[in-house]
Amino acid sequence: MIEVGKKLSFFGKVLQKNDSTYDTYPVNVLTEESENVIVRIQKEQEVSLNKIYFFETETIQFKDKVHYFASSRVLLGELEITDARKEKLLKFFYHYAPIEIEKIKKDIEEILFSLDNKVIKDITMKIYNRHKDDFYLYPAATKFHHAYISGLAYHTHSMLMLAKGFFSVYPFLSKDLVNAGIILHDMCKIFEFDSYEGSEYTIKGKLLGHITMGANLINNVANELSYQDEEEAMLLQHIIISHHYYGNFGSPRKPNIAEALIIHFIDNIDSKATVLGEELNLIETGHLTSSIGVLERERYYKHKLTKE
After folding, report:
1. What is the pTM of this model?
2. Whole domain around residue 91: which residue ranges?
3. Last-in-domain residue among 32, 55, 78
4. How many angstroms separate the CA atoms of 283 and 300, rounded?
5. For residue 292, what are the β-bridge partners?
């Protein structure tokens, strides 16, 4: 039995909120220790479903049951904790990208710092530094591909790794344009979705989309830096508006520079190959996957040479 009057602090995910006629209302919370507890929140305070909070509580007796009265609750995103600690919590409470945030952050920032062209580097660094916290949390989609916590950073990192092979084969490509374009191409998905957990599309996401918002963001930052008349700013915008290639997928223009075309191909490869790999992991050797939406609903055979 839990002792009444005991002070306890813990991280927990809000699973359900309940109405109450009392001055506190009960909230079902899943703790980091896999326990389901009832936390009582004061009526004038609010908590959101599916969010992680740090609760400071005191155990009380309520109708012959032990509840946890919350003297304080703070959203995970408002706490100053290490990336490793945040990653551990996100992996426990949510479907999470199969990555180590610290490693991919190091790889991405090494590429950012290596950009040579001043205009490209200044624009990309300003956008990255302004939005990097959300960039490492948000999914790349609500379904189809990389639709989980940190999916956006995972997808971006995979594309940057794939680009290295293209540079070795096609020397005419601008590494700066390709790398910056990859980092920026989906950045505005942080505005397209309402949150990083269990995301739904925002009104802006539905009416504008990340492509339009991305091109506008580059334009605004270029103006802030007095680069609005520089060709590099226009080239970055072109990469954003063309990376889906087809108008019915959101791109108002097809790629008309080499780097935009390559980014489209790399984006397409990673979005499809990642989903295929995830589907193959779900089945035994010698079987077919279920039909895969991003691959024209085809089914794929897992042969004996498939690597686990």
Report:
1. 0.80
2. 83-280
3. 78
4. 10
5. 298
